[in-house]
Amino acid sequence: VQLQASGGGLVQVGGSLRLSCAASGRAISNYNMAWFRQAPDKEREFVAFISWNGLSIGYTDSVKGRFTISRDNAKNTVYLQMNSLKPEDTAVYYCAQHLRGSYDSQEAYDYWGQGTLVTVSS
After folding, report:
1. pLDDT of residue 78
2. What pLDDT, on the 0 to 100 scale, is given for residue 46?
């Protein structure tokens, strides 16, 4: 499977962006998916998770109430709606397909998109 992340860009503090992760080569409808991010000079960190059917969702504490993960299996796409953006949200955002294990651990994911850059200016 190939994962293509898009939707990043430059936005002011308090603004919104919607990231998309389009899969090709295989349907992702049977797979849990997640978003991670990597800020400059920091390690990649978990952001949000969604189960294959959308019934189980999880977020890292810093984005709860501001970010919403969703999916459209008919379009083979996962989304991340980001509202009330802060400078600390600046990072390259990656989507990933879950293989096994803890959903907030990078080691649990086997396929990764190339990343899309989000820059929040103050």
Report:
1. 98
2. 98
